[in-house]
Amino acid sequence: MAADLILTNALVYTVDTARPWASSLAVADGKILALEDVSRGPATEVLDLGGAFVMPGLVDVHNHHAMAGRAELFELTFGADAAFEDILDAVRARARSLGPDEWLTGGAWASTLVETLSSASARRALDDAAGGRPVSLSDDSRHNRWVSSRALELAGITATTSDPPGGVIGRDGGEPSGLLLEAAGVLVERVIAGLSPEQHRRASQRAIEILHGFGVTAFQDAGVSTDILGALRSLDEAGELSSWVVSSLLINDPIFGFDPVGAPLLEVAGQYRTEHHRPDFVKIFLDGVPPTRTAAFLEPYLPDDDHGACHHGSTTMPPEELTGWLLEAASAGFSAKVHCTGDASVRQFLDAVSQVRAAGYVDTRFQVAHGQFVHPDDLPRFAALGVAADISPFLWVPGVIPSAIAAVLPASRASRMQPNRALLDSGALVAGGSDWPVSESPNAWEGIAGLVSRRDPRGRRSGALWPEQAISLAEAIEVFTLGGARACGLDDVTGALTPGRSADFVVLDRDPFRSPSVGDTRVVETWFAGRRVF
Q: CA 287, CA 294: separation in Å to the nearest integer?
């Protein structure tokens, strides 16, 4: 069989232990034909790469691609390093281009600004900057929102409005401050004008273009709506979906305001399955995030005036409800990704998986999403129960969110985040995710560099975060390739360069194994199914 494409004079790293290295790669019908120079036909394209480094396309096991695309195309964006006055300046500039009562949405403000944004005076400053318009700005976790007075008015939030289940309406002197934590933000999300089907399609398309620029050829979206599912189906049916996509169907929705969720969403998921899109997972939010004390921990947070000295946070549902949902999903053929940012939620999820395995569902895939904090007793349970660790975003290095966490947890616990070395040593499957746009960029090479050094690859913050948990470069690359593919069920088609798999690969500007600056690695070309897409 003649090849359609042959790469020669290349340094090919396959991420396949049986044959980790090759110098050629042959492609036919969008799949890898051989790791050698094979017979050529009259139409065979031959590319001499001049010794360039080639490896599998990256797999991002946790992102919110449509949200990132929407932000890129339709919203105000600013970095987590923006100070309070910087945010107001950005709002002021954006507002000048809007109609008199047009929504201004965007983000993402740093978790460290929670206290600053908790006052009514801060909300009034936002009102002034926006010219009285409705404003909703997400934080860096995308779990919490800072909104204007007009947004509160449109959402019907007043001084007498009760906190919704799973959410907190921030108050200052009895009136809403404008800070909405967790499910309280959904009250505003539901009154913001949504995107049209074409805008949803453009958002997904733009996000995938950006992902290609960073070498990502497969990803799992960690929480989708029917609008997002429809956009992915539309793209693939038109031959324009140049990525493998696994979608996670929301069982509960404390932050997005999507409808439907739960059983009604699972019932229609099959309508959106296409060649490159697999709506195969459910997603459950089992707790919130540590900076706002909504993550569930076995030991208490640092004391404060609002929560006292014995606050542990709580899970979003009792153990029996979680187990019930996992059993229902497994019986319908769905795997599960469960958001756990505190060690108590991790333990509750592992306990539930144990019951599901005992019920006979031995092949169902399970992922702990985030899992920054895991009790030492629970580390070996990941491998024993076949639970993958979806490590996302890149919180294994000093940064804004780790700093915010250090303000609410004792130093002895805050300094022990993301036990990646221990997970790998225990035999657990570890898969890398960006959680983009929670991470400002889906650049996995920054995550890989941090996994290896436990230091900020951009050099913005000094020091290392729990350096004993560093892993090797080969391990880190596998985390963002084959590990991710296995975790989300795509290892039958991608994740390593072996004959029969999809020809998804990247050409890099350097050999990362010989580079002193792995975090600076850049993608020169990205190929999906044998086609150059970047």
A: 6
- Residue 316: how many CB atoms within 10 A of its CB? 22
Q: Determine the Cα–Cα distance for residues 277 and 456; give it in Å rounded to an integer.
A: 34
Cβ pair 532, 504 in contact under 8 A:
no
Torsion of CA 31, 35, 38, 42, to 10 degrees: 40
Q: Which residues of the chain register pLDDT less than 70?
A: none
Compute the distance between CA of residue 478 and CA of residue 473 in angstroms, rounded to an integer. Answer: 9
- State the angle between helix axes of 197-213 and 226-237 in degrees (0 to 180), rounded to the nearest 10: 70
Q: Find, among 328, 330, 332, 352, the residue nearest to 340 by Cα.
A: 352
Between strands 11-13 and 21-22, the pairing is antiparallel
Q: The tokens of 197 are what?
A: 């089907």
Least Cα distance to 202 among 314, 66, 303 occurs for 66
For the chain, what percentages of helix, strand and coil (3-state, to nearest 5) are there? Answer: 35, 25, 40
User: Per the structure block, which two tokens stand in for 32?
Assistant: 């890898």
320-331 pLDDT tens trace: 999 999 999 999
Q: Which two tokens stand for residue 304?
A: 């404060």
Q: Rounded to two decimals, what is the model's pTM? A: 0.94
Q: What stretch of H or E contains 218?
A: strand 216-224
Residue whose structure tokens are 């976790």: 141
30 class by beta-carbon count within 10 Å (0-12 exposed, 13-18 middle, 19+ buried): middle
Task: Note the pLDDT of residue 37.
Answer: 78
436 HSE (CA, 13 A, CB side): 28
Instruction: Report the DSSP pairing between strands 31-34 and 104-109.
Output: unpaired
Distance of alpha carbon 343 from alpha carbon 348, whole angstroms:
9
Determine the length of the chain.
Answer: 534
Check residue 435 and give its pLDDT.
96
- Count Cβ atoms within 10 A of the Cβ of residue 450 and give its class: 0-12 exposed, 13-18 middle, 19 or more buried: buried
CA atoms within 13 A on the CB side of 376: 2
The two tokens of residue 458 are 């951009």
Count of other CB atoms within 10 angstroms of residue 239:
9
Distance CA 256, CA 260 (A): 11
Asked whether the bond before 254 is cis by omega within 30 degrees of 0, the reply is no
pLDDT of residue 81: 87
What sections of 387-504 are H helices per DSSP? Answer: 400-406, 411-414, 420-425, 444-453, 473-479, 482-488
Query: Rounded to an integer, what is the distance from CA 214 to the centroid of its chain?
Result: 15
The whole-angstrom separation of Cα 248 and Cα 334 is 9
| Angstrom distance (rounded) from CA 170 to CA 183 | 12
Residues 518 and 454: their CA atoms lie apart, in Å, by 13
Whole-number Å distance between alpha carbons of 291 and 438: 14
Distance CA 180, CA 168 (A): 6
DSSP 85: H
pLDDT at residue number 193: 85
Contact predicate 6/33, CB 8 Å: no
